[in-house]
Amino acid sequence: MKAFMSRYILLFILFFLLSCSAHHYSNEQINFKKDPVVQIPYHPLNNEKDLGILLKAIDTSRIVLLGEASHGTSEYYTWRTAISKLLIKEKGFSFIAVEGDWTDCYKVNNFIKAEKKDANAVIALLKEYNRWPTWLWANYEVASLVSWLNEYNQNRSAKDKIGFYGLDLFNIAEAANEIIPFLTPADTTAMHAVKKFQVCFKLYANDEQQYSKVLTRGINTCKEAAYDVWQTVHAAAFKKSNTSETGFAMDQDANVVFDGELYFRTRGNAVDAWNFRENHMLETIKRILKLYGPNSKVIVWAHNNHIGDAQFATMHWAGKINLGNLLRYKYGEKDVFIIGLGSYTGSVIAAEKWGASYQQMPVAIADDSTWEEKLHHHNTDNKIIISKELKDKPALLRWISTIGVGVIYHPLNRTGIYSLSVIPDRYDAFLFFEHTNALHPIATHVNEKGPLGKTPLDY
Predict the structure, then answer these.
(1) Which of 167, 129, 164, 165 is nearest to 148 (CA)?
(2) What's the maximum distance between 2 C-alpha atoms anywhere in the chain?
(3) In this structure, which of 89, 150, 417, 458 has its CB flanked by the most CB atoms within 10 Å?
(4) Long-range interactions of 137-141: CB distance < 8 A, separation 24+
(5) Would you list the domain boundaries of the chain?
(6) Strands 95-101 and 298-301
(7) What class does CATH assign to 23-92+301-458?
(8) Which parts of the chain have pLDDT scores under 70?
């Protein structure tokens, strides 16, 4: 009996220690109806002058990640633009890297580093984002940023111009096509490899989604051809010296071909595919930072699901990593500053199903369990929350429900992306907007009904 009691006591102690681990977080959500008196320290967010407190908190961080709770909210884009301008002007940030295709974003990069262009040229440029969902980057809010970057770069030397790059790997056919202009007649091996891949991929109408469908049948198809592109182009880039941006771009196009093909082959396992894509984003950032030099700094634009540290979000339980926690691990928390963005109500641009035309929709009001409802309940001000100011609030060091919107959304059915997060650790700061408005897309003259083989896994 004594042995049984001793074992029972040991088990109880073990359970108690486990339940108190992870910074003493409770695995319960805050019940805001039962706990309405929790005070959240915040700073008002009314105009750009209010961003001073945020820049002070960023301090000397080398990497600043700017999130969003949807891909279709105007305020998220305009405030990320305002923050990015200040980081570039006042803290010497070198480039912006976004959750967008490498090929299309590199066209933006070349555009903003060239001579001064007018608004019509900017709009024509953004229409190059012609893969569904087009509105993510083909919108008037991004046009404003591109115009500013182009103008800002006019008085900077070639080596000091601000860059703009895409972190994604979906446009593998276009990436292969973009390699050819970089090659010289002497690069015969690389040229042969690229053309061999083009011939292979043409069998699938140069459509990554058609290719993905075939891969689900267990056929390797263009696997070897993609590897040959990466190997031979990488060797050609090395000979040319990978310190120039053109050499870097050629090499990155080859990386997109190889990694993109591999990504589509891993999509049968959602977790593996997600993690592979996050690692590709990480490696791209590392490579661009190296290109710009040891003192370079990067601003990253991506959805909260990519930038909010996965270790403190539900995705971690499913085995997922993300860019936020990878960057913190690689560069250290002092050099990485993560800013989440969210809102309570308003309108958004999204689609009702994958590949369908976009439309403006009302945002479903967050339910009583959410972080967003708590901030609304506190008062209706727009707010800047600095996470270190929440560390002495045990009620906030718990798993709290947060809500986001993907490119697919059904507000009447309340199908937002609900997940649990430990807010003060997932983000270093959080910008909250009481009411937001839909993004303003640029008509791209392409059929918004995209390939049906694509899945929401990608966003």
Answers:
(1) 164
(2) 86
(3) 150
(4) 137/98, 137/100, 137/104, 137/105, 138/441, 138/442, 138/444, 139/77, 139/439, 139/440, 139/441, 139/442, 140/440, 140/441, 140/442, 141/74, 141/77, 141/78, 141/81, 141/439, 141/440
(5) 23-92+301-458
(6) parallel
(7) alpha beta
(8) 1-37, 216-220, 239-243, 413-416, 445-459
